[in-house]
Amino acid sequence: MKKLLFAILPILAIPLLWANPKPGDFFTSGPKAGKEIALTFDDGPGPHTDDFLALLNRFHVKATFFMSGDQVKIRRGVAKKVFDAGHEIGNHTWEHINYLKRNKSLIKEVGPAKAPRKSIDALVADMEKTSKLIADVTGRAPRLCRMPHGIDRSWVKEAASDAGLILVNWTFGEDWTSKSKEDLVKEYVKALSPGAIILIHDGWPKSDKSLTVTEAVLKAAQEKGYQIVPVGQLIGLP
């Protein structure tokens, strides 16, 4: 009986890992059971976000866009268009500050004991400012946040908890590198696996490589039988 119970427990625990994520939680992937993945876009809304929307629409896919507050302010109409098309919008802070570098500077200024609190307060204010603008533009406050540069520290999790946001990094992404379109396509397609969170950028002035990668990922996911869903759905947000 004990052996049977221990055999069943891991199975019962699997869905619980993805049930009701709460602010301050941190994800780099979703459940590896099944064939769901998430496609995410950073740093927008950008000058070519409409092109990404057209691609997603052609494949009937909903994605997650992690938007920077300063870009939403510039392109409010594009942000609303993303939301109205049924995509999920996440918080990417206001202007892509490297908070790890900022925290290191604060350590020098105020010492290691006071720096974390100051970093938390600054980051919470940043997150809340960005979330408020997204809510004003779309009518819905984001529940997810992706930190610029993927920073993962205990004080970042505390800030996210205070700001009411769940942290999401990624399983794979490299469209910002100098690799060729061909090499990027190969790597992205290879990275498709159950629960993967794929990172691409729609917020750059020159997005030709990222558009090529996006189309390749959409085609490959379709061929491999993957369902692409927003991150919130992937990680079990109600």
How does this structure look, described?
- With 238 residues, the chain is of the alpha/beta class.
- It has a single domain, classed as Glycoside hydrolase/deacetylase (TIM Barrel), CATH 3.20.20.370.
- Helix content is 49%, strand content 13%.
- The strands form two sheets. Strands 2, 3, 4, 7 and 8 form a five-stranded parallel sheet that branches.
- α6 (115-138) packs across α7 (154-163).
- The relative contact order is 0.22.
Question: What structural class do the secondary elements suggest?
Answer: alpha/beta
Strand content: 5-15%
How large is the count of helical segments? 10
Q: Would you count the extended β strands for me?
A: 8
* Biggest sheet record: 5 strands, parallel
Shape: globular
Mean pLDDT: 91
Tell me the number of structural domains. Answer: 1
**What is the string of helix and strand elements?**
HEEHEHHEHHEHEHEHEH
**Percent helix range:** 40-55%
**CA-CA gap between termini:** 35 Å
Provide a short characterization of the protein structure.
The chain is of the alpha/beta class and 238 residues long. Helix content is 49%, strand content 13%. β2, α2 and β3 form a beta-alpha-beta unit.
Layout of helices and strands, plus pairs?
Layout lengths: L1 H15 L9 E2 L8 E9 L4 H10 L5 E4 L1 H6 L1 H9 L3 E4 L7 H12 L4 H24 L5 E2 L8 H10 L2 E3 L12 H10 L6 E5 L6 H17 L2 E2 L2 H4 L4
Parallel strand pairs: 1-6, 2-3, 2-7, 2-8, 3-4, 5-6
Helix pairs in contact: 2-9, 5-6, 6-7, 8-9
